[in-house]
């Protein structure tokens, strides 16, 4: 801090009095220049990511958009690029996400309510909290290994094989910490007076939570949940490990039977197309698949935003 | 628990009657159920550890642990198979180092911009826009690295391999920027205003306040963001599986390497029967990866807690 002290002293010497050039060195010009350079640097850093994102989107859409057509969307995977599409993988992905949502939303919201509204500050609660924040940072491929050892091949109970249900359970364990964290944050944002008002009127804790706290926390929680689920939609590594098929030559039926059958998924189909030998797959079908996936993601996220805005308008 | 309906003396049994017993029962039921949901996270952690340990023990019955940890050749599935994990760890560390070289400085500078420089309106949309970067599926990044960045790098570095650590690492770095920026920004933003004003009162410029007062004050939070970013890079799978290749060797940045995660994906795409040694390698490599990221995650939790305590 010696530079700034020197400058203060210089400024403090007042008008009229001649400055002693040997004692005080006014560095403000240099420092102001460095400041300007630094401003440019931090601004560039903040926009760097956005620029890369823009380049990525333009590149991917330019590569893929010409090849997205009705035939691509309605065809199954094939060894000839002209006949190949993403239909089977798309259906598999949608089923996976719906199932994952059905499993994780009740459990995640319940766990969040317990931690935020009921649990006292004791050893177990703290242990659960540390565990959840650690689980949220465990690499997704590790969840795949967990699903492989636990659901597919079975550790204590017999395994169920590489079926859709095993994939959905694996994805559920993966997104659950994120959903819990998002819901807790939304619950925490509800003012304490809402709870106190309900309790003062004789409602039980659960009644207050169900009728007052949860409804006002829902928009925030919903946004967090949809973001978490859309992350699951793009997850590739854990599904590869639990044995989703890379070559979706069939679409799972839209019926409960699908739960126990094999399945493909959109990101895995894309990965498979990137790896194929014939260049058409990598250069045409893979980017076309990416465009489809990005559009689905965009739709899902817009639904989240619309839902939240509607909810907020009604209240 | 019946309450007289007041004047008139008529009693409506449905009015003012509250079934306390049912309420209490329901309360207890809800608490127990939701507590069970919360404890599921502990169960998941145990599940991960159990599954990893189970197959890892089976693996080390056949391969000496010393050969695994210090062997320099990774060649499973061959007639004379060798299981030295060092090439995979090398691949992981190389791509992670490249990613960190991108993400840590840019992430920190972006955090400084967001907290100290950006106008409020801009900050409000720039932050979520940055978060989109973290939401792009990693296969997409992998595709981008392989088909866009690698040819671009080929113009500068002749003789670059189609699959190389540099391209994968750079793109991985871009993916991690939001993680570093957002956690750092939280820490920087939490630094009390008084510290900044003290700096200005002493005649410091904006940059001097930012770099010599605010950043040092937020150091533990920034450290947490760095550790978390590195942990992401270590565990990242699809970018390296697509763009860095599958050669388990001690290659340079321009050559193909295989990370631990890429190995697991490569083995899993083929059908591997449970019980074989190749199947067990998935779990051993997974356990190694899990231990590495666990150490990093615990470190970051400690750092975050320290910065929360300060302010």
TrEMBL record, chain A:
<feature type="region of interest" description="Disordered">
    <location>
        <begin position="1"/>
        <end position="27"/>
    </location>
</feature>
<dbReference type="Pfam" id="PF00528">
    <property type="entry name" value="BPD_transp_1"/>
</dbReference>
<dbReference type="InterPro" id="IPR005672">
    <property type="entry name" value="Phosphate_PstA"/>
</dbReference>
<comment type="similarity">
    <text>Belongs to the binding-protein-dependent transport system permease family. CysTW subfamily.</text>
</comment>
<feature type="transmembrane region" description="Helical">
    <location>
        <begin position="135"/>
        <end position="157"/>
    </location>
</feature>
<comment type="function">
    <text>Part of the binding-protein-dependent transport system for phosphate; probably responsible for the translocation of the substrate across the membrane.</text>
</comment>
<feature type="transmembrane region" description="Helical">
    <location>
        <begin position="232"/>
        <end position="251"/>
    </location>
</feature>
<protein>
    <recommendedName>
        <fullName>Phosphate transport system permease protein PstA</fullName>
    </recommendedName>
</protein>
<feature type="transmembrane region" description="Helical">
    <location>
        <begin position="163"/>
        <end position="182"/>
    </location>
</feature>
<keyword id="KW-0472">Membrane</keyword>
<feature type="transmembrane region" description="Helical">
    <location>
        <begin position="37"/>
        <end position="58"/>
    </location>
</feature>
<dbReference type="InterPro" id="IPR000515">
    <property type="entry name" value="MetI-like"/>
</dbReference>
<dbReference type="GO" id="GO:0005886">
    <property type="term" value="C:plasma membrane"/>
</dbReference>
<dbReference type="GO" id="GO:0035435">
    <property type="term" value="P:phosphate ion transmembrane transport"/>
</dbReference>
<keyword id="KW-0812">Transmembrane</keyword>
<dbReference type="GO" id="GO:0005315">
    <property type="term" value="F:phosphate transmembrane transporter activity"/>
</dbReference>
<keyword id="KW-0813">Transport</keyword>
<feature type="domain" description="ABC transmembrane type-1">
    <location>
        <begin position="90"/>
        <end position="304"/>
    </location>
</feature>
<feature type="transmembrane region" description="Helical">
    <location>
        <begin position="285"/>
        <end position="307"/>
    </location>
</feature>
<feature type="transmembrane region" description="Helical">
    <location>
        <begin position="86"/>
        <end position="115"/>
    </location>
</feature>
<keyword id="KW-1133">Transmembrane helix</keyword>
<dbReference type="InterPro" id="IPR035906">
    <property type="entry name" value="MetI-like_sf"/>
</dbReference>
<keyword id="KW-1003">Cell membrane</keyword>
């Amino acid at each position: 801090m010696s530079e700034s002290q020197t400058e203060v002293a210089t400024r403090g010497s007042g008008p009229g009095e001649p400055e002693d050039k040997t004692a005080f060195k006014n560095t403000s010009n240099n420092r102001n220049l460095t400041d300007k350079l630094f401003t440019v640097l931090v601004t560039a850093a903040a926009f760097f990511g956005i620029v890369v994102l823009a380049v990525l989107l333009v590149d991917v859409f330019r590569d893929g958009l010409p090849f997205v057509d009705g035939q691509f969307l309605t065809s199954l995977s094939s060894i000839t690029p002209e006949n190949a599409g993403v239909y089977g993988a798309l259906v598999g992905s949608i089923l996976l996400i719906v199932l994952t949502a059905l499993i994780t939303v009740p459990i995640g919201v319940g766990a969040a309510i317990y931690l935020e509204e009921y649990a006292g500050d004791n050893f177990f609660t703290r242990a659960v909290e540390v565990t959840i924040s650690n689980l949220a940072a465990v690499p997704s491929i590790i969840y795949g290994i967990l699903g492989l050892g636990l659901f597919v091949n079975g550790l204590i109970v017999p395994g169920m094989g590489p079926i859709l249900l095993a994939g959905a359970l694996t994805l559920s364990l993966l997104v659950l910490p994120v959903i819990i964290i998002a819901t807790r944050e939304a619950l925490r944002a509800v003012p304490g007076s809402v709870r106190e008002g309900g309790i003062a009127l004789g409602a039980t804790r659960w009644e207050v939570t169900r009728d007052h706290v949860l409804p006002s926390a829902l928009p925030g929680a919903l946004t967090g949940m949809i973001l978490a689920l859309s992350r699951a939609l793009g997850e590739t590594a854990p599904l590869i490990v639990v044995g989703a098929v890379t070559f979706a030559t069939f679409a799972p039926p839209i019926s409960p039977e699908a739960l126990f059958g094999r399945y493909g998924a959109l990101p895995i189909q894309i990965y498979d197309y990137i790896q194929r030998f014939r260049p058409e797959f990598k250069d045409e079908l893979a980017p076309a698949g990416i465009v489809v996936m990005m559009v689905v993601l965009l739709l899902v996220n817009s639904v989240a935003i619309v839902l939240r805005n509607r909810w907020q308008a009604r209240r | 628990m019946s309450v007289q309906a007041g004047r008139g003396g008529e009693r409506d049994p449905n009015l003012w009657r509250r079934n306390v017993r049912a309420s209490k029962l329901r309360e207890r039921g809800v608490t127990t159920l939701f507590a069970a949901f919360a404890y599921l996270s502990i169960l998941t952690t145990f599940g991960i550890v159990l599954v990893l340990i189970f197959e890892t023990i089976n693996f080390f019955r056949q391969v000496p642990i010393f050969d695994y940890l210090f062997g320099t050749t990774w060649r499973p599935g061959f007639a004379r198979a060798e299981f030295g994990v060092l090439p995979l760890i090398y691949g992981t560390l190389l791509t992670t180092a490249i990613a960190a070289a991108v993400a840590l400085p840019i992430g920190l500078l972006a955090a400084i911009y967001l907290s100290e420089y950006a106008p409020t309106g801009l900050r409000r949309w720039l932050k979520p826009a940055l978060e989109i970067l973290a939401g792009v599926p990693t296969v997409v990044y992998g595709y981008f690295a392989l088909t866009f960045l690698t040819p671009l790098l080929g113009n500068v570095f002749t003789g670059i391999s189609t699959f190389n650590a540099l391209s994968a690492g750079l793109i991985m770095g871009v993916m991690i920027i939001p993680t570093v920026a957002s956690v750092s920004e939280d820490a920087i933003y939490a630094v009390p205003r008084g510290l900044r004003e003290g700096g200005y009162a002493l005649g410091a410029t904006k940059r001097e306040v930012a770099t010599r007062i605010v950043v040092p004050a937020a150091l533990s939070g920034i450290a947490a963001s760095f550790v978390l970013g590195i942990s992401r890079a270590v565990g990242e799978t699809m970018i390296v599986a697509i763009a860095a290749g599958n050669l388990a060797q001690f290659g340079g940045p321009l050559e193909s390497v295989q990370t631990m995660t890429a190995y697991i994906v490569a083995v899993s795409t083929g059908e591997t029967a449970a019980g074989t040694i190749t199947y067990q390698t998935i779990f051993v490599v997974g356990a190694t990866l899990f231990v590495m990221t666990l150490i990093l995650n615990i470190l970051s939790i400690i750092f975050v807690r320290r910065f929360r305590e300060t302010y």
